[in-house]
Each structure stands twice: as structure tokens, then as C-alpha cells.
Amino acid sequence: MSRRCEITGVGPMVGHNVSHSNIKTKRRFMPNLTKATVQSEALGQNVTLRITNAALRTVDNKGGLDAVLLKARDEVLSPRALKIKRQIKAKLAEQTAA
Q1: What are phi and psi of 40, to 5 degrees?
Q2: pTM of the full predicted structure?
Q3: Could you tell me which residues come within 8 angstroms of residue 23 by beta carbon, excluding any fewer than 6 positions away?
Q4: What are phi and psi of 53, to 5 degrees?
């Protein structure tokens, strides 16, 4: 599995370990990924995604998974999240048409 957030697209970053004597060695900063089950109000089902804890706080702050996915750009979403976004858009279009 890739170490990439399915909502924000955050992946590993590269930096330096800096010693007391200022010697720099390469290191990787890994994202804090967790497997979270989030409920989609439009679909009426739970969705399990691998997301960062920061993205989980964003989902809580913005008012749910639907709001976050609808605002997110398609380029940063994983294929699973993009599929869920399409399903949400279709369900909302169906509800407004009826």
C-alpha cells in the first residue's frame, strides 16, 4: 500500500536529520496515516479510508465526508475516494431532480 492520504494526497516528505555538530543526513517524514471509518450522509453508508489524522480533523470540522470530498480536487483524491465522490454527486443530483 502506498503511504498517501486518500483525501488530501499527502505523502512522504524528505528532509534532514541535523546533529548537534550540524551534520546533515537524509531522512523521510512519513504522514500519520490511520484507517478511519467515516459515514457518508448522502449515501447512507460507512466508508473506510486510509487518511491522515489532520484530514480526519478536517472532515469533522467541515461537516462530514461529503462536504470534504465535494470540495476536494480530483487530482489529489485516490481512485477509491474519487469513486465515492462520483457516487455522492450522482445521489445528490438524483435527489434534486426528484
Answers
A1: -100, 120
A2: 0.86
A3: none
A4: -65, -30
C-alpha cell at 38: 467515516
| Close Cβ partners of 13 (under 8 Å, ≥ 6 residues apart) | 28, 29
Q: Where does the pLDDT of residue 2 fall: very low under 50, low under 70, confident under 90, or very high at 90 and above?
A: confident
Sign of CA dihedral 2, 54, 7, 49: positive
* Per-residue model confidence (pLDDT) at position 98: 73
Helix (H/G/I), strand (E/B), else coil: 84: helix
The separation between the first and the last C-alpha atoms of the chain, rounded to the nearest angstrom, is 40
Give the model confidence (pLDDT) of 21-67 as tens digits: 999 999 999 999 999 999 999 999 999 999 999 999 999 999 999 99
User: CA 62 to CA 51: how far, in whole Å?
Assistant: 15
| In contact, 52 and 10? CB cutoff 8 Å | yes
